[in-house]
Structures are given as structure tokens and as C-alpha cells.
């Protein structure tokens, strides 16, 4: 058989694959689905991070006390306050991050004709995280403000009715640039999160699969690797997350911003509230990050399998 015939046969038998926009779409939808489950924990994390700002007074004893106080003061539905902004953040940040990461991966394979190693994956994860975070910052600002509004005195509340109202009012009252307030710590946090998460998840997954435990590929393996990856990611990214939350939620005092920047937030929190306050809200943050990763992967797998089976007519999944 000639070389041309072999190439023609390879083209014929090559299995169809989902276009890139479908991969990006599924990435965003899986993140949004996971957010619907873990949104209450994100709200608790935000409330705990901004409690004690300025005065250093501890408002909540722990995560459970925070939940109890929110439900007692504002009602159980308040745990989903800001869900519109949270979903918009996933639609922008997660889609942008996965899109950029996929693009860089494909570009790397085309140029070097091999799979990226862990260092290359960390570098691509860092770039992808930065791009996704910059795109998603306006939704992040709206989310922080909407989830923290209930703890303010009635006279000081912003009372945004929904995410569109929040974005419109922020632009009108504070200027367009206010939508990217705190973009530096947001991007920095996303770079740390993606670099740590991608590298550690891969390493934990390999250890559990090939090491003494010999776990089979599946939900159990993904769950264990994700939870340990989430623990490491939480430890490394929380100080930047505190800075991001405080800056995005700050108001002007006598015409001047409450904080000068990320370093100013970190130094003032450590000085006024103690060094461990940089990890305030650790429990809800970790309990949100681990399950969010697991749920995102599971939903992504199910959508990929459904698309492959019912649209492309093949049983196998492209996998994660």
C-alpha cells in the first residue's frame, strides 16, 4: 500500500473530536454547576475574611458560628446571596482559564512534539490563571460586594439587586476602572492557585494510582487527589485571597482608599489582627475548593461522555 493510501485510510478511521469551543463551553458549565453546590461556603469564607477589618475585633468564633449568624440575621436563602455574580465569574474566569490552558497545551505539543512535563504545566497554568482572572475580575468584585453586604449596617449597605445592577452601579458611581479594583492580588492569587493546583493534583493522582494504594482510575482517585491538592492550594493562596477580598470590598475614607495595595493589606492584617489572620476563613475556603474541583471534574467528564455518545456517536470519552 502506498504512503498516500495509508494517509487517506488514517484520515477515514480517525475518530471525530469535539471542537475547541465545545471544550471551553463545557469547562464553563462544569464550573458553574459546581458553584451552585459550594456557593454558601464561598459566602462564609468572604464574611470571615472581612470580619475584623480595621478594628481587629473577631466577629465570628468559627465557620459554623458564621453560618448560624447569617441564617439568624438574614434568613437561609441569604447563603446564596451573590449567586448571579458567582455564576458570571465561572462563565468568565473558568472558561477563559481552560481556554487559554488548552490553547497553550496544543501549541506546546505542535512545537515540541511531546507532552509537557510538570514544570511546563506549572508555567502554562500560571499564564492561564492570570488571563482568566483578569477577564473575571469584574464579576469577582461584584461577588465580593454582594456576599459581604449583609454584614454592614443598614445605612451603609449597597443593596445591589443583582449582578447586572452591581456592575452598572459600580461603573456609574466609581468609574469603569473600579470593576478591576484588586486585579493585581486577584491575578496573583489565580497564578498561585493554578500553578499549585495543576502540579500537585497531577503528582497526587500519580502517587495514588501507581504507589502503594494502587487506586483505579475513577471518582475515588479524583476525589482523594483533589482534596489534597485543594489543601496545599489553600495554604499557599489564602493570604493573597484575603488581600483581594479586602481591596475589592473597601470604601473610601475621607476621599482616600482604605488600602494602598496588596502589601499594605497583608502588613496591616498581620499587625492589627495577628499573622494567622492571613488564613482567616481557612475551613470554608478549603471545604469549598476541594469539592469544587471534584465536582467540576465529574461534571466535565459527564458532559464530555454525553457529547461523545449522542453527538459524535462514540462510546469513549476524551478524559481529563
UniProtKB/TrEMBL annotation:
One GO CC term on file: membrane
Q: From what organism does this protein derive?
A: Drosophila pseudoobscura pseudoobscura
The record's listing under PROSITE patterns reads: SOLCAR
- Out of the domains of life, which is the source? Eukaryota
Membrane protein topology class: Multi-pass membrane protein
The Solcar repeats extend over 22-107, 116-207, 217-306
Query: Molecular function terms in GO for this entry?
Result: antiporter activity
User: What reaction does this enzyme carry out catalytically?
Assistant: malonate(in) + 2-oxoglutarate(out) = malonate(out) + 2-oxoglutarate(in); (S)-malate(in) + 2-oxoglutarate(out) = (S)-malate(out) + 2-oxoglutarate(in); maleate(in) + 2-oxoglutarate(out) = maleate(out) + 2-oxoglutarate(in); oxaloacetate(in) + 2-oxoglutarate(out) = oxaloacetate(out) + 2-oxoglutarate(in)
Q: Name the principal localization, coarsely classed.
A: membrane
Checking Pfam families in the record gives: Mito_carr
Q: Can you say where in the cell this protein is located?
A: Membrane
UniProt KW keywords: Antiport, Lipid transport, Membrane, Repeat, Transmembrane, Transmembrane helix, Transport
Q: What is this protein called?
A: Mitochondrial 2-oxoglutarate/malate carrier protein
Q: Name the gene for this chain.
A: LOC4800489
Q: Which GO terms describe its biological process?
A: lipid transport
Give a yes or no for keyword Transmembrane in this entry: yes
Regarding protein family, the annotation reads: Belongs to the mitochondrial carrier (TC 2.A.29) family.
Amino acid at each position: 500500500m502506498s504512503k498516500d493510501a495509508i494517509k487517506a485510510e488514517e484520515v477515514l478511521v480517525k475518530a471525530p473530536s469535539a471542537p475547541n469551543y465545545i471544550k471551553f463551553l463545557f469547562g464553563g458549565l462544569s464550573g458553574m454547576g459546581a458553584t451552585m453546590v459550594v456557593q454558601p461556603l464561598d459566602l462564609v469564607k468572604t464574611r470571615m475574611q472581612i470580619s475584623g477589618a480595621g478594628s481587629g475585633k473577631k466577629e465570628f468564633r468559627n465557620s459554623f458560628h458564621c453560618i448560624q449568624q447569617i441564617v439568624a440575621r438574614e434568613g437561609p436563602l441569604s447563603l446564596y446571596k451573590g449567586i448571579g455574580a458567582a455564576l458570571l465569574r465561572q462563565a468568565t474566569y473558568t472558561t477563559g482559564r481552560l481556554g487559554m490552558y488548552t490553547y497553550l497545551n496544543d501549541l506546546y505539543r505542535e512545537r515540541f512534539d511531546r507532552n509537557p512535563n510538570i514544570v511546563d504545566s506549572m508555567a502554562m497554568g500560571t499564564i492561564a490563571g492570570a488571563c482568566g482572572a483578569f477577564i473575571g475580575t469584574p464579576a469577582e468584585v461584584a461577588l465580593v460586594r454582594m456576599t459581604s453586604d449583609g454584614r454592614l449596617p443598614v445605612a451603609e449597605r449597597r443593596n445591589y439587586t443583582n449582578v447586572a445592577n452591581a456592575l452598572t452601579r459600580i461603573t456609574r458611581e466609581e468609574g469603569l476602572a473600579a470593576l478591576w479594583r484588586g486585579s493585581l492580588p486577584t491575578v496573583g492569587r489565580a497564578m498561585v492557585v493554578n500553578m499549585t493546583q495543576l502540579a500537585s493534583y497531577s503528582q497526587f493522582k500519580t502517587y495514588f494510582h501507581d504507589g502503594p494504594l494502587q487506586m483505579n482510575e475513577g471518582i475515588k482517585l479524583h476525589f482523594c487527589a483533589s482534596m489534597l491538592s485543594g489543601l496545599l492550594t489553600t495554604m499557599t493562596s489564602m493570604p493573597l485571597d484575603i488581600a483581594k477580598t479586602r481591596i475589592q470590598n473597601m470604601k473610601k475614607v475621607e476621599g482616600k482608599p482604605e488600602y494602598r495595595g496588596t502589601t499594605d493589606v497583608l502588613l496591616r492584617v498581620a499587625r492589627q489582627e495577628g499573622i494567622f489572620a492571613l488564613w482567616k476563613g481557612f475551613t470554608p475556603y478549603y471545604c469549598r475548593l476541594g469539592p469544587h474541583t471534584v465536582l467540576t471534574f465529574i461534571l466535565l467528564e459527564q458532559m464530555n461522555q454525553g457529547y461523545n455518545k449522542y453527538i459524535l456517536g462514540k462510546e469513549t470519552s476524551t478524559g481529563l
